Amino acid sequence: MYLSAIDRPGSDATPTAGRSRLRGLTIVGGNVFALGTVSLLTDISAEMVTAILPVYLVFGLSMSPLAYGMIDGIYTGATALLRLVGGYVADRVRTPKAVAGIGYAMSALAKLGLLTVGRSAGAIGLVIAADRAGKGLRTAPRDALITLSAPPRALGRAFGVHRAMDGIGAFLGPIVALAVLAATGQAIDAVLVTSFCIAALGVLVLVLFVRDRHGERPPTAAVSPRQAMQLLRAAPVRRLLIAACLLGFAVIGDGFVYLLLQRREEVPISSFPLLAVGTSLAYLLLAIPIGALADRIGRVPVVLGGYTALVVVYLLLFGPLHGWPLLALVLLLYGFFYAATDGVLMALAGPVLPEHLRTTGIALIQTGQALAYLASSVLFGLAWQLWGPLTASRCAAAVTVLAVVATAFLLINRSSTPTDTEVTA
């Protein structure tokens, strides 16, 4: 159920009006904070490398918008099927922590791989693919651990806490990279080695402090591929998957947004990574309060509000504002978009998925969204190349409006939450 006892406004109301904010946060549990710490460290490592990637590919390697769109889409979408693998394996062996750990370790090792590939675009693409493969493998088990580590009424806050800590890492990553470059005389190798060390520390935190959660399924209840496929027979799961695909198709990607800002405001190349810092700062400040708001007023309205903010971002890229007001407003709204959609969409998924297939179901939704994003990024790059950035951005805004309307139709006031009995062997 989407606007049901789980998602209905007021369903998470506390019995004591004066309950402190700290107590409201501690309900999410220590496991969520441990997972948040792992994501914080991993994001510092990842953003050290990726914050300057759009500039490097477009300006350094002179890639066309279409070529960049293909690489950017592949960056997120090409390893999307591994999310299904990670989700299914985690449900099958009932050890989501181990599957997530393998994914985190793969991404850490990929940082060392970048040391050996030089300026070859193809080799860089292969290493990035390995890094994203690790991300694809770990994402669903990690999010399933969050849903199993917090009470249903606090899932919005749990994902908000996790995404806020993730946002802190994304905020610090470009800053750490710039500091390392300044301290080492612009030595890229030093950035990569530092990035690997930080990622390895994240893996260590996962091993030492994150606990597996298995829910209430008995060990004898094996998960089969047939059961996983039957998830789509449940109407709420099917509707959420369709909505996730529509919303994924509405996103053109960070790189394009920042490149359009850079072109319009002539942001110095040396300052380009700071655009990502601005978005991350807004994200980390908003993630927890927006997650709590989603628990109070409903998660679907918050998600729709986030994508409405994305429409405004696309329109502002060629609107009347200029200078720092434009930069500040776009980065604030872009951070709000991520805070209102990333974790909240996964909080929507948790209650409508049967416990013994929760990781697989989350992976299915994430895979559909990632593949839709791959198509969106390629098509936006093609539209930019054929019609110019202005027309391409307006088309993106129109597509996002349609996706928001369709998602509202799919998710608001829809009932029937699937249970374990609906997905049978």
Automatic annotation (TrEMBL):
InterPro entries under this entry?
MFS, MFS_dom, MFS_trans_sf
Q: Does the keyword Membrane apply?
A: yes
Q: What are the annotated GO cellular component locations?
A: plasma membrane
Keyword field contains Repeat:
no
Q: Name one Pfam family in it.
A: MFS_1
Any transmembrane segments, and where? 21-42, 48-68, 167-184, 190-210, 240-261, 267-288, 300-318, 324-349, 361-384, 390-412
Q: How does it sit in the membrane?
A: Multi-pass membrane protein
Q: Which UniProt keywords apply?
A: Membrane, Transmembrane, Transmembrane helix
Task: Tell me which residues make up the Major facilitator superfamily (MFS) profile domain.
Answer: 22-415
- Spell out the molecular function terms from Gene Ontology: transmembrane transporter activity
State its location(s): Cell membrane
State the name under which the record lists this protein. Answer: MFS transporter
